[in-house]
UniProtKB/TrEMBL annotation:
This is Phenylalanine--tRNA ligase alpha subunit. It comes from Parablautia intestinalis. It is found in: Cytoplasm. It catalyses: tRNA(Phe) + L-phenylalanine + ATP = L-phenylalanyl-tRNA(Phe) + AMP + diphosphate + H(+). It holds the Pfam family Phe_tRNA-synt_N. Binds 2 magnesium ions per tetramer. Its EC number is 6.1.1.20. It comes from the Bacteria. Tetramer of two alpha and two beta subunits. One of its GO terms (cellular component) is cytoplasm. Its cofactor is Mg(2+). The keyword Cell membrane does not apply.
């Protein structure tokens, strides 16, 4: 894998060096760093890497990406200066004309938050797995220990296409698909859009995004879950962040908990942002229920695991101190250009 990454880096740097136009630099960026690029392909092949090697490989991928991005930025800056100098030499500029502002777009707050979450977990040896937004009732509910008469399956709560197909209400269904492959151990996160029949207000939307994580291996305990999520919280909100777990109930985990993080505005002393409690609720988690393991063909006597799920919009709202979720979807340029 290291030789492959070195080869990708060498090829990318060579192509950048030989580029003579900005559009070629963009093609190189897409070819190596895009969703279907070379480095993304390496990340998707993480499942074939030994579990103990994944953190090291994830770090090497991040370092390779950073090196390519740095060289691309230098080449782009140099090329833009050359283009500008050529234009200044060849054009007569009327300095009395009003300037033209070049409006360049950038990443959405949700995208920035997702890339940060993916960076943290890929660095811990996880792979990023995507699944279908239209799911069967079995994968969205039954395989997650949610029986046919559960209230969550009511049409007032869930967008059903027909009796068998629906818009997924959680990305946990992607985890079930991975478990059924029985390629253990599993260390994955599943980001994606989910759908629920909610009224639109400052904290709810019928369409939003989740990032759910799953680890299955021998001898996994709640201590592993706590350590992983504590490290995630420190990476995301700062080194001084503390975590607190409160008992809860989820059908697909047992025991289950909700996790709070210490308020990163007041350091846990209590302020308007945390409503005076010093803590902010961030995600739900727990140990994978034995029934869920059994239904996916995994022996709960030999294997155990933990799962967690966090709303991506919630991370963006907290991290950037946004007080209304609707702002993320209204595409108001005055709001988006702040990020």
């Amino acid at each position: 894998m290291k030789e492959r990454l070195e080869q990708i880096k060498a090829e990318a740097l060579k192509q950048i060096q030989n580029s003579d136009a900005l559009d070629k630099l963009n093609e190189i960026r897409v070819s190596y760093l895009g969703k279907k690029g070379e480095l993304t392909a390496v990340l998707k092949s993480m499942k074939d890497v030994a579990a103990e090697e994944r953190p090291k490989v994830g770090q090497m991928v991040n370092e390779t990406r950073q090196e390519i991005e740095a060289v691309l930025a230098q080449a782009k800056e140099k090329m833009e200066k050359a283009v500008l100098e050529a234009r200044l030499q060849n054009e007569t500029i009327d300095v009395t004309l009003p300037a033209k502002k070049n409006n360049v777009g950038h990443r959405h707050p949700n995208t920035i938050a997702l890339e940060e979450v993916e960076r943290i977990f890929v660095g811990m040896g996880y792979e990023v797995v995507e699944g279908p937004e239209v799911e069967t009732d079995y994968y969205n509910f039954e395989a997650l220990n949610i029986p046919a008469d559960h209230p969550a399956k009511d049409e007032q709560d869930t967008f059903y296409i027909n009796g068998d197909f629906l818009l997924r209400t959680q990305t946990s269904s992607t985890q079930v698909h991975e478990m059924e492959k029985e390629k253990l151990p599993i260390r994955m996160i599943a980001p994606g859009r989910v759908f629920r029949s909610d009224e639109v207000d400052a904290t709810h939307s019928p369409s939003f995004h989740q990032v759910e994580g799953l680890v299955i291996d021998r001898h996994i305990t709640f201590a592993d879950l706590k350590g992983t999520l504590a490290e995630f919280a420190r990476e995301l909100f700062g080194e001084d962040t503390k975590v607190k777990f409160r008992p809860h109930h989820f059908n697909f985990t047992e025991p289950s908990a909700e996790m709070d993080v210490s308020c990163f505005k007041c350091g846990g002393k209590g302020c308007r942002f945390c409503k005076g409690s010093g803590w902010i609720e961030i995600l739900g988690c727990g140990m994978v229920h034995p029934n869920v393991l059994s239904m996916s063909g995994i022996d709960p006597e030999k294997y155990s695991g933990f799962a967690f799920g966090v709303g991506l919009e919630r991370i963006a709202l907290l991290k950037y101190e946004i007080d209304d979720m609707r702002l993320l979807y209204e595409n108001d340029i005055r709001f988006l250009k702040q990020f």
